[in-house]
Design goal:
298 residues; alpha/beta; D-Maltodextrin-Binding Protein, domain 2; 2 domains; five-stranded antiparallel beta sheet; two-stranded parallel ribbon; 11 helices; 42% helix; globular
């Protein structure tokens, strides 16, 4: 509280001191009641790895006393810009080693990497398991049966970028195939339709991802690593996040998932519970896996 009145008497000065002390005590009590702050988590709704972890972090951070806001964003470019500029505080599943490395480089100094929660992610080229090819190079000379198309997700995503900038040149696919980009939802709709009709189709995917079991898919061997090597999935924040939210940072940096744990988390959120029941999916996963971790707050 700012006061501009000049106090000339000792009595008045003493009263001011007492009032100031009371005000500070009241402000401290209010701050404590308000909790440690609000954390905004940005994610793309169609990218399930980020969705899973957005809801997991919401659950765990709220149990620490934070207010959490989930902010769906339209594209990776918009997401990283919002993160770098502090419009959102966290991106809960950054493929920052390879697939999204260009964004990390672009915003160098404006981002803070809080560490990887999963270390076995990689991009892939996949086909239904009834398709009789096993290697990326087997696609050459086969364009007609695939309609001359390889389907991928949103332009600007790490998956689409790796396919265009690395995979196609590595195998010379550009002379025969068109990289057809759309939303993840649209690509999966096309894939589902093709599988239902047992048609030949090839798509860019990544592991881990629930669609492999759902649609019966297999990876094409990629010895030239056209879709990139194995990388980690990171919790990425704006610069200074750990100073602003030290307790949240301590929790986040303890989160580590193996293949089975990650698969169970994604399956719960995507398949076992309906849209809108993400909180129930997280509660279910936490109850099933709490004894495997020393960081889970039940």
């Amino acid at each position: 509280m700012n006061r501009t009145t000049r106090i000339l008497s000792v009595t008045a000065l003493s009263a001011l001191a007492i009032g100031t002390a009371s005000a500070c005590t009241s402000a401290s009590a209010d701050a404590e009641a308000d909790g440690p702050g609000t954390i905004t988590i940005g994610f793309l709704p169609s990218w399930t790895d980020a969705v899973n972890n957005a809801y997991l972090l919401e659950d765990q951070l709220e149990k620490l006393g934070y207010d959490v806001e989930l902010e769906p964003l339209a594209s990776p470019a918009v997401l990283y810009t919002a993160l770098a500029e502090g419009e959102v505080d966290l991106y809960p599943s950054a493929w920052s080693d390879i697939s999204q490395a260009e964004y990390v480089k672009k915003y160098e100094g404006q981002l803070e990497d809080l560490g990887a929660y999963y270390d076995n992610a990689h991009g892939t080229l996949a086909v239904p398991d009834y398709v009789d090819i096993d290697h990326v190079e087997d696609l050459l000379g086969q364009a007609e049966r695939f309609g001359g198309k390889i389907y991928t997700i949103e332009p600007g995503s790490g998956t689409a970028t790796m396919a265009e900038d690395s995979l196609f040149p590595a195998y010379g696919l550009g002379d025969e195939y068109e990289l057809t980009a759309s939303s993840l939802a649209a690509m999966l709709t096309t894939l589902e339709r093709a599988v239902k009709d047992r048609e030949d189709i090839v798509v860019t995917l990544w592991r881990p991802f629930w669609a492999y079991e759902e649609y019966g898919l297999k990876d094409l061997e990629d010895p030239r690593e056209g879709m990139g090597a194995t990388e980690g999935l990171h919790f990425m924040a704006h610069a200074g996040f750990s100073d602003d939210y030290p307790e949240a940072t301590e929790l986040i940096q303890q989160i580590k998932l193996d293949d089975a744990q990650y698969g169970a988390l994604e399956n719960a959120v995507v398949n076992e519970f309906e849209d809108g029941d993400e909180a129930a999916a997280i509660d279910h996963w936490v109850s099933e896996h709490a004894d495997e971790f020393n960081w889970i707050i039940e």
